[in-house]
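Please fill in the sequence for the structure shown.

STRUCTURE ENCODING:
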């Protein structure tokens, strides 16, 4: 039905194509075909404005994104720029960033070259030149976190003990929720999930390097 509707619209030779959730209620194969068609149309200089709640769709198709909250545009620009610099918790949630924490740089850490970022009583070592008291957001990519049943002896300076509260499978593996005082999301492969024998209530350790996290000053 979507292909027919688009074909009828294109027959009128429009200057702009307006689409509202064009991939809803269709199977994966048809979705991939429609996405390919829209990319080709755009490459042939047809302007397309599309409404979507799926950031992966926007990332695959858009040259520019505008994110709307309560009827107002709260951030716009290049999709990859927004992904690396979400301006609010709402934007971070929309683009699928789970570990997004507001806080401030509390002081110089005892480790040379690193600073301490404080959020909800948790202190995370980060690599930044920002001054003490600088407020902002910390992004900890879930796929750079190492999960283990015991504390590891490694070069990762950030180490936290916590409890598994939930887990669920995704296309790329398993996402695990761990409470370390704040809720953290960790992504692991199916193999690692089975090897670690993860279950809700398990005590685990999380570790990650200071230079793997991103501080956004606000």
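FILLED IN BY: designer on duty
SEQUENCE:
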């Amino acid at each position: 039905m979507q292909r027919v509707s688009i074909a009828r619209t294109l027959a009128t030779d429009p200057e702009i194509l307006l689409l509202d959730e064009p991939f809803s209620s269709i199977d994966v194969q048809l979705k991939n075909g429609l996405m390919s068609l829209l990319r080709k149309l755009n490459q042939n200089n047809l302007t397309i404005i599309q409404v979507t709640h799926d950031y992966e769709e926007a990332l695959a198709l858009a040259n520019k994104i505008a994110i709307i909250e309560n009827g107002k545009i709260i951030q716009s620009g290049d999709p990859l720029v927004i992904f690396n610099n979400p301006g609010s918790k709402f934007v971070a949630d929309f683009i699928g960033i789970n570990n997004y924490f507001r806080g401030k740089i509390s002081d110089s850490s005892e480790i040379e070259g690193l600073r301490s970022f404080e959020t909800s009583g948790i202190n995370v070592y980060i690599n930044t030149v920002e001054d003490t008291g600088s407020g902002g957001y910390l992004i900890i990519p879930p796929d750079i976190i190492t999960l283990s049943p015991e504390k590891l002896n490694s070069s990762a300076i950030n180490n936290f003990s916590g409890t598994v509260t939930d887990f669920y499978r995704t296309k790329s593996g398993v996402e695990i929720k761990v409470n370390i005082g704040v809720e953290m999301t960790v992504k692991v492969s199916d193999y690692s999930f089975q090897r670690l024998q993860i279950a809700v209530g398990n005590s685990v350790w999380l570790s990650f390097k200071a230079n793997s996290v991103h501080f956004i000053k606000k």
